[in-house]
Design a protein that fits this description.
The protein is mostly beta strands. It has one domain (18-162). The protein is 0% helix and 46% strand. The protein contains no helices and 13 strands. The strands form 4 sheets. Strands 1-2-3-4 form a 4-stranded antiparallel β-sheet, with no helix packed on it. It has a 4-stranded antiparallel β-sheet with strand order 7-8-9-10, with no helix packed on it. The relative contact order is 0.12.
């Protein structure tokens, strides 16, 4: 029989937000992370340690907009869109050549690692990236588009890479 010792009420989140656990909920220091993917805001709570949610506004850089805003802005803060937990840390990707790491010690600390990739990415026009934890391993799934949108044919493929942090 499973026994629950504490309860966390989840915040109301905008659509397309993510909720990720850093570890098993009963392990000391497990962080519940809520990511608002349309804003540069995260909420976190350490199970059994924090009495409530902590809001944290982050800045991990800027990205170009496809269409400038009405006031002429052509850049915006880069949001975290897809995130996964692996070995007590959180990982997310904003570009093909870089993976970001979010650790709590105890406050949020952001860092990044370069992704070593081969020449096949040089021919990718556009890609959707997903990080997936499975079987205590971290994988990057890529839906790669090689052709230009709006053409008669669109060449795409799915790829999966096992992440190696050694």
């Amino acid at each position: 029989m499973t026994r629950f010792c504490c309860r966390i009420c989840l915040r109301t989140l905008p659509r397309q937000s993510n909720c990720v656990l850093s570890d098993k909920p009963m392990n000391p220091g497990c962080v519940v992370l809520l990511v608002e993917s349309i804003a540069t805001v995260i909420w976190y709570c350490r199970v059994g340690l924090d009495s409530g949610w902590t809001r944290y506004e982050y800045d991990i850089g800027r990205q170009k907009l496809f269409v400038p805003t009405s006031d002429g802005e052509d850049e915006e803060k880069t949001p975290i869109c897809t995130i996964a937990a692996y070995q007590g840390k959180f990982y997310f990707i904003t570009r093909l050549d870089e993976i970001h790491v979010l650790e709590f010690s105890p406050a949020p600390v952001f860092s990044s690692l370069e992704i070593a990739y081969n020449e096949e990415f040089e021919y990718v026009y556009r890609a959707k990236l997903f990080l997936v934890e499975s079987g205590e391993e971290l994988y990057m799934a890529v839906l790669a588009y090689r052709g230009l949108f709006g053409r008669d044919t669109l060449d795409y493929e799915a790829r999966v890479y096992k992440m190696d942090f050694s």
